[in-house]
Design brief:
The chain is an alpha/beta fold and 253 residues long. It has one domain: P-loop containing nucleotide triphosphate hydrolases (Rossmann fold, 3-Layer(aba) Sandwich), CATH 3.40.50.300. Helix content is 42%, strand content 17%. The chain contains twelve helices and eight strands. It has an eight-stranded mixed β-sheet, with helices on both faces. Strand 3 and strand 4 (82-84) form a beta hairpin. The chain is globular, with a radius of gyration of 17 Å. The model has no long low-confidence stretch (mean pLDDT 95). Residues 16-17, 40, 44, 122 line the site of magnesium ion.
Length: 253
């Protein structure tokens, strides 16, 4: 069985999607089979991996409805990553699901029989039913935190939800790690925020810190991972190191 990682933080714009795409790229470079599941109706992971959202026929929505399997829904995209794409119609499905049976287990059921070394789920910036589906399906969570003044705000709420899920829907859910993103080493603030997060999460904070790097922000507009867009950039180095660290943590359990 492979390992399913939900990348989440209900705060918007902290680097979830950037992490999903580029972690996937470097796990793939390590010869792992990798499936990215986009469960954010914004579809940023879908377009960031070079897929035109206007042309989708089978998406995460069909997967959650149970009308298609992973094998039917999957696209092979850049860097040989596999992707279950999504578009904004997923938002409506979330409302439909609210009154349906096993509504928290839709993603888990859909992924159960798929065979990948890693499945990485890009969550929306909310603690919604879609995110709960990710937490129910996942083995572990990776929380990107933007290295800025309000970084810790909202994290206690996030951890409360994770604890609720552990108490019921998914007792085995683990915190894989907390990832500092958009780190600007020139500022004292960034250092302070880092120290604060380390004080809070201890060795759960990844050694790898993702610097603020414009190449990371440019790559998705070309539909490329950082490895294809600029593999020598600081951002690429960081995500390559992160993939090694993630794999290390997963295999050492
Ligand atoms: N390390 C970085 N350096 C510079 N820009 C970055 C970095 N990481 C992400 N960005 C940019 O910041 C913006 C937000 O990043 P991203 O989309 O990954 O966040 P998100 O948490 O997925 O957002 P949302 O909550 O809307 O889904 C994007 O424009 C992205 O290109
Ligand atoms: Mg995103």
């Amino acid at each position: 069985m492979g390992h399913i990682i939900a990348v989440l933080n209900q705060k918007g714009g902290v680097g979830k999607t950037t992490t999903v795409i580029n972690l996937a790229a470097y796990l793939k470079k390590m010869n792992k089979s990798v499936l990215v599941v986009d469960i954010d109706p914004q579809g940023n992971a879908t377009s960031g991996l070079g897929v035109n959202k206007q042309l989708l026929s089978i998406t995460t929505k069909e997967l959650l409805k149970g009308s298609h399997t992973v094998d039917k829904a999957v696209l092979q995209v850049n860097d040989n990553i596999h992707l279950i794409p999504t578009d904004q119609t997923l938002a409506a499905l979330e409302i439909e699901l609210v009154n349906s049976g096993e509504r928290e287990f839709r993603l888990k059921r859909a992924l159960e029989r798929s065979n990948y070394d890693y499945i990485i789920i890009d969550c929306p910036p909310s603690l919604s039913l879609l995110t709960i589906n990710a937490l129910t399906a996942a083995d572990s969570i990776l929380i990107p935190v933007q290295t800025e003044y309000y970084a810790l705000e909202g994290l206690s709420q996030l951890l409360e939800v994770v604890q609720l899920v552990r108490n019921g829907l998914n007792p085995n859910l683990e915190l894989l790690g907390v990832l500092l993103t958009m780190y600007d080493g020139r500022t004292i603030l960034a250092e302070q925020v880092k120290a604060e997060i380390v004080a809070h999460f201890g060795n759960k904070v990844f050694d790898t810190v993702v610097p603020r790097n414009v190449r990371l922000a440019e790559a998705p507009s070309y539909g490329k991972t950082i490895n294809t867009y600029d593999k020598w950039s600081k951002g690429a180095r960081a995500y390559r190191a992160l993939a090694r660290e993630v794999h290390q943590r997963v295999v050492s359990g």
